[in-house]
Amino acid sequence: MGVTDPAGPVMDRDEVDRALARLGAEHEAIETSLLALQDHAGRRLLEGAELTGVTRERWTAAEASITLLWAYFDAYTGALRLARDIRARRRWSSREDLVELTELLRGESVTVADSAAATANAPTLHGTARLSHTFSLVTLVERMNELYASSLDMVVASDAVWSALPARIDLLAAELQRTRRLAHSVGVRPGEHPAGDDLEHITRTLTNLREQVVSDPLAFWVPAQGSSAPGGGRPDTTVYDREARALEDVRREIDAVLTVRQDAEQRLVKLRDVLSRADRTLAEARTARGEVLAKIAATEVPVVSGPPTVLQEQLATAAEYRRHAQWHRLSPLLESLEQKAEDELLRARESLTEVTAPLAVRAELRGRLDAYKAKVARHGLAEDPFLVERYDAARRMLWSAPCDLRVAEQAVLRYQHAAAELLGAPRVPQQGGPEDRRGEQGS
Question: Going by DSSP bridges, is the β-strand pair 132-135/221-223 parallel, antiparallel, or unpaired?
Answer without folding.
Answer: unpaired
